[in-house]
Amino acid sequence: MPLYVDLDGTLVATDLLHESLLQLVRASPLSLLSLPLWLLRGKAAFKDEVAQRITIDVTTLPYRPEVIELVRNARAAGRRTVLVTASDARLAHAVARHLGLFDAVLASDGERNLRGAGKLAAIEADAGGRAFCYAGDHSVDLAVWRGAEAAVVVSRSEALARRAAGASTVVAHIVPPRTSWRRYLYGARLHQWLKNVLIFLPLMPVLHELTQPLVVNAALAFLAFGLMASGIYVLNDLLDLETDRRHHRKRTRPFAAGEISVPAGLVMAGVLCAASLALSLALLPDAFVGVLLLYMALTTAYSLHLKRRAVVDVFSLAGLYTIRVAAGTAATGQPLSFWILSFSLFIFLSLALAKRYVELTGPPAEVRQMKRNRGYVATDAPFVLCTGVAAGQMAALLLGLYLHDQEMLARYEDPEYLWILIPVFLFWTMRIWLKAIRGVLHDDPVVFAARDWVSRLAVAIGAVAIWMAG
Predict the structure, then answer these.
(1) I need a surface site. Which of 203, 242, 427, 450 has the fewest CB within 10 A?
(2) pTM for the full predicted model
(3) Measured between alpha carbons, how far is 164 from 158 in angstroms, rounded to an integer?
(4) Are 328 and 387 contacting, i.e. CB atoms less than 8 angstroms apart?
(5) Spatial distance between the Cα atoms of 372 and 180, rounded to a whole number of angstroms
(6) Helical H segments across 169-285, by residue range
(7) For residues 22 and 29, what is the distance between their CA atoms, to the nearest angstrom?
(8) What is the 3-state composition of the chain as percent helix, strand, coil, each rounded to the nearest 5?
(9) What's residue 339's pLDDT?
């Protein structure tokens, strides 16, 4: 009995049409305007138009090992194995060539869409009247199972398994691992909320005169920015599926691993961003809403295009960090200090370059990907190192000039204690770069600093110095 195996959701834990559309949007956002016109010509033509414009690296797809083993066992038993899918034929043939496990491929070809009854007709024509076994994962596959002698169900749904049993003889029920709620939280990148601590930075000069409204507004701004950042991070992860799958660490992220589907991810992104905007409009000043929208626009542009332009990418990252400081001033009504903004730009430019330097000095395979993904080549490492260290030193100089500003000094009774900040800050920046050069700075530098006990000690010393000065 030949074995016919579905592709999307069965052989791979994702949907290639969804991933193709994401790639198309990333490569050419204006192509969205053409999608309705292509769809009017039918689903098969729609898939064909999309497949013509993208290239998916099938070697990195999240294949289901249990299904791969099923196909291998069938071939070992001398059975004919066929990949049959509603995905476009270009993608299906690429998968078949990569795996080398299928004798034939049946797929949508621009004229016919192999889904449901159409898939059954294609299988029956290929089988030539012989009984066959079909492996699928969705209720739409019931139309195929009704014509099959045997069924393999690849789904966590017991209800689908029962319905399949009513349509055919279920010879195997493969149950993929359930995605835990912790993976959804990880997909929202809650640990990246640590970056939003920068929203509290404008309160540092007035620590000795804090009021409850200031603290509440800063906390609400922190929450709103966190929700927005999570939504954008989800979108960024969806757009970077292929890139993440090539990375030794990022390939385990829930979207790259196929644990959370593309539609579920898009819903997550929409809900998180909508919650952020609703919270901001209801409880925070209009100025903060404006800054949040600016952050949303810049970070979306970064995800779609800016991060693939060398130098532009690190300035964009520095800008995104600095916007958080501006959000803190907008939420609390504190003045937007030229000194703080200048200091923020240089220090976050230095940290962004540190992140790029670590990537440029990483495993050779990932360094080669940097040219396509970030616009850098391996020989850029010395430039990135020198520029990053210089930006960090400029930040230290700006901090020293700020501490000598007469308007700032007038706020404190004993401003000489503030000079403790300079050696502490210099030590911290030099330590960050030393770790980057040694290749042990694995996280985003800001996230690393929030987790690093030496960095936390440096912040505590700085806070004590400000308190003593006040």
Answers:
(1) 427
(2) 0.83
(3) 10
(4) no
(5) 33
(6) 181-187, 212-239, 241-245, 262-283
(7) 9
(8) 70, 5, 25
(9) 81
